[in-house]
Amino acid sequence: MSDESGHKRPEIMLDTGLAFFGAVVASVSHEMNNVVSIVDQTAGLLDDLIAGEKHGVPLSIERLEEAVKSVQRQTGRGLALVKRLNRFAHSADENLIEFDINEALENLTALTERLANLKRAALTFTPAPEELLLRGNPFFLQQTVFTAVKIALTDIDREQTVAVSCRRDGDAVAVELVSPHPLDPADSRFEGLRTIVAHMDADLQLEPAGGPATIRLTLRNATPAP
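Above: the chain's sequence. Below: its structure in token form.
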């Protein structure tokens, strides 16, 4: 497999890309399963209310309203998840496109929040104050940030926060992930990050190595739109 410049991509790009895609889909499917389970339970409640009314038990309008609101909340949540997953899936359509970096990272962090929630921690995203339209590969960008988030969540404590943000950096764009605890630059997963970043024509930095750390991705040749 080759990129648009004719350079052959290593197999690790395909392997890690599939693993990343699968991890996001698996996480969203868990959330969708929760949505369907709650709707199913609510349907059971409605069935009980109907059965009770048939046997002379007065129908509780309050319980009926509560059940309807529960279904509405969950269907709204489910539709939002499907929309986000669809947007994420289309980020792999083409190797080089113009895309909104704020939108791509906001969507990714929303899809990834479950990983932080499982640790009783938090994941936040602060967008650049202005629109940043970049020409590049949104899938590789999201894969890099996702991998960095997983590294930062490895030893995180409850109620700590991993913060992702992006901003202008001269003629480039900087994406930063701030970890609440030290990160080990010898962690083998950083090698995977470097492999992806090499195909993005970007720089990857970890600083400092001995304290709460920042992973910084600088997209050198990506010029923000005016």
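The domain at 11-90 is CATH 1.20.5 (Single alpha-helices involved in coiled-coils or other helix-helix interfaces).
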